[in-house]
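Consider this pair:
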Amino acid sequence: MIYLITAIHVIVSLLLVVIILLQQGKSADLAAAFGGQGSQTAFGPRSASNLLTKSTTWLAVVFVFTSVTLTVMLQHQTASHHSVLSGTTTSQSAPAKK
């Protein structure tokens, strides 16, 4: 089950990166400054941004859900519940003399 959720998590991560990179910024594009026709897209200027925004939102929700699920499942899989810092040693050294 952990492998399935990990695979979903990786796929969602890659899709999230791609969809975020496809979105236009809120300011004008560089192409628009030089007279480019950036508004002629397959979905139209408004529906493409709405589709990408909704996709980003849902993928972010799935990403957070799979992150929390993996954390809980891996915590239950380990025999001892420990902190991240439980294996570190805290040794203080004396300041160097001049």
Observations:
- Residues 1-23+45-74 form one domain.
- The longest helix spans residues 45-77.
- The two ends are 58 Å apart (CA to CA).
- The chain has a mean pLDDT of 77.
